[in-house]
Amino acid sequence: MSESVSVRVNGRLVTVRAGATVAVAVLASGATCRASVTGQPRSPLCGMGTCFECRVAINGEPQRRSCQVLCEANMEIEANG
Amino acid sequence: MDSVRHLRFDVAVVGAGPAGIAAALAAADSGRTVGLIDDNPVAGGQIWRAAYNSARPSASSIWFDRLNKSAVQIVRGARVFHAAQGELAAESDDSAIQISYGKLILATGARELFLPFPGWTLPNVMGAGGLQALVKSGLDISGKRIVIAGTGPLLLAVAAYVRKCGAKVIGICEQTSRSRMARFGLKMMLVAGKAAEALRLAYDLRGIPHWTDCWPVAAFGNRRVETVRISRRGQTSEIECDYLACGFHLIPNVELPRMCGCRLREDFVQVDKYQQTAVPGIFCAGEPTGIGGLELALVEGEIAGYAATNWEDRAKHLFAKRARYQKAVRILQDAFPLRPELKNLARPDTLICRCEDVPHERLREYNSWRAAKLHARCGMGPCQGRVCAPAAEFLFGWQIDSVRPPLFPVRCSSLAAIPAQSAPRN
Question: Domain map of chain A by residue range?
Answer without folding.
Answer: 4-78
